[in-house]
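As a next step, the fold was encoded as tokens, giving this record:
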Amino acid sequence: MSFKLIRYEKQDGIASIRINRPEALNALNSDVNAEIAAVLEEIDADRSVRVLIITGDARAFAAGADITEMAQASPRRALEVSSLAVKINNTLENMSVPTIAAVAGYAFGGGCEMTLACDFRVGGSRTRMSFPEVGLGIIPGANGCVRAVELVGAAKARELIMLTPVITGEEAYKIGLLNRYVGPGEHDELERAALIAKQNLSDAQKTGDEAEIRDAKKTYKDAEAAAAQEEFDTIYALALEIAQALKEKPACALAAAKAAINRAALETVAAGKETEKAEFTLLFDTKDQKEGMAALTEKRKPLYTGC
């Protein structure tokens, strides 16, 4: 299957989806969502996929839904659009394989909601997350309210959704919207060059010399783009590191753990307990359980073959 607005790759059991609409900061319109939904169905049916990474580019994971498409939408059309977004996020949440969002740049609105549906989220110093919907006269439409409560609690969810702040990657990590965080110190040289270029631009603006300002703006733009790309590469490398670690785990145990955790988080603790009990029991009828325990007693590395 070929795609125009996303890039799909698969290598050694790790699948990756890259949203590819850079001219619109990867904003999620109906065409983008249709391609994501289609590739998720393909991945869900592919038993060779062990982990999924979803990402955008250095400037944006996805800067929300496409407002030009939604501004004049009727309630019926709004329901159609949100239903597809809900389907995508529910698929990410309920897939048996672990899902990782590599979040560089902007993750606003529908993009932010998509990251919350993933099992793991990795971001950096340039990551910016926000729920701007209330400021546009609506609310998150792909279950973002519910997932925000699950991740950060009701009080913080009210703050994020009702006051619509834009929060940094560092703050997102501190409150639990991100699992892992890449600080600026992890790519010092280009970061330092961007800071120097920014200061030089500020100094040039004080002189009033248009040619000097123009040159300083270009230098800063190039330096910032290089630093942002390096941060994206570092974020993606960390996401890939997590994916490699997950790929080494037995697939059925990962799927069972995900099912129990999701049921407890999304339904009730009691329901989660029942799922945990059932999944625990059923795993004793898998090849990987036998292999994992045999490897431990025999003091060797296990060789998991999948359920």
In short: Residues 210-247 form the longest helix (38 residues). The chain has two domains: 6-183, 251-297. The chain has twelve helices and ten strands. The mean pLDDT is 93.
